[in-house]
Design goal:
With 300 residues, the chain is an alpha/beta fold. The chain contains eleven helices and eight strands. It has one domain: Rossmann fold (3-Layer(aba) Sandwich), CATH 3.40.50. Helix 1 (20-36) runs antiparallel to helix 2, helix 2 (38-49) crosses helix 8 and helix 5 packs across helix 6. The protein is globular and about 60 Å long.
Length: 300
């Protein structure tokens, strides 16, 4: 989920910092700080937690789709958010990427949706891809999504990956209209972002509690209810497809179970084994199910 939430997902066991060596080194340093002062360790951890550390590039197998997009920019607090659109403008579908990612990661999804007559719409989050600035919070994402909906929506569907899933759930609660939602390897419990981060770095309960307090104070004006408010809750999607790889090493599969349980009969499941965290976005079998699900909602 930068400055708010966008930062947690790929920084923990699930959210990998810039690699195993970096994670071990950061863990040793923060653990040593925690023995002296949990408060100091929490402040240092917060600075690591909220930064993407790396900015994903467009990959070679994404280049053709990326270059074919109509690119516009949405003004945002002195910066410009890069917005991408493919297709003829009819039947728009919103695509929301995760932490340390970018819109081009949906290249295979874009190809399949446009072949079915949809107009995929996506954006590079603040501090990600071609969008400059510092990473934003879940509140920034919601405002950006609202602006895109006013410009391109209402959306026939939404496809969200990883940290994009709680972002979309919050946007739905705030009035985003979408017939069907696809949650791919997503987070259902907002507090998991901190728990996974601390687990990855070997930080104990004292640092976890202080890090949560620091996030509340620094990013959300002291609001202590963010852990419930930004979690899946009662399930905001009217019709949901939950896609999860059971061997995902970035987001624990139990998060998908939370999301599915919250939606009950309104949710469908697709479980894979061995595709990991991101390969689902280009697997043809997964794409068959995802696009069919979106298309069935659009025709109903």
């Amino acid at each position: 989920m930068g400055d708010k939430m966008t930062a947690a997902i790929e920084l923990a066991p699930t959210l990998e910092p810039a690699g195993a060596l970096t994670r071990r080194l950061a863990g040793r340093i923060l653990s040593a700080l925690a023995r002296v002062s949990p408060d100091v360790a929490a402040r240092a951890g917060f600075e690591l937690w909220r930064r993407p550390l790396v900015r994903g590039d467009v990959r070679e197998d994404e280049r053709a789709v990326h270059d074919a997009a109509r690119v516009t920019h949405l003004p945002w607090r002195g910066d410009r958010v890069a917005v991408y659109e493919w297709g003829d403008g009819a039947r728009p579908v919103l695509l929301v990427h995760g932490w340390r990612s970018r819109a081009s990661r949906f290249a295979a999804v874009v190809q399949r949706l446009t072949a079915q007559g949809f107009t995929p719409v996506s954006y590079d989050a603040l501090g990600h891809g071609a969008t400059r600035g510092r990473a934003g919070t879940i509140l920034d994402h919601e405002a950006i999504i609202r602006a895109l909906s006013e410009r391109s929506g209402p959306f026939e569907g939404v496809v969200a990956h990883s940290l994009g899933v709680p972002i979309v759930f919050h946007a739905l609660r705030r009035g985003l209209r979408a017939r069907r939602v696809v949650a791919i390897n997503g987070v259902g419990d907002f507090g998991y972002l901190v728990d996974a981060f601390c687990a990855a770095l070997g930080l104990g309960p004292a640092v976890n509690a202080r890090l949560r307090w620091t996030i509340e104070q620094r990013l959300f004006d002291g609001a202590s209810d963010i852990w419930e408010r930004f979690s899946v809750g009662d399930g905001p999607a009217d019709e949901l497809l939950v896609v999860q790889d059971r061997l995902d090493q970035v987001v624990h599969p139990a998060q998908a179970d939370l999301i599915a349980a919250a939606h009950g009969a309104r949710g469908r499941r697709l479980d894979t084994i061995g595709l990991g965290h991101s390969a689902l976005l280009s697997d043809q079998g997964v794409l068959d199910v995802v696009v069919d699900f979106i298309a069935a909602g659009a025709s109903s």
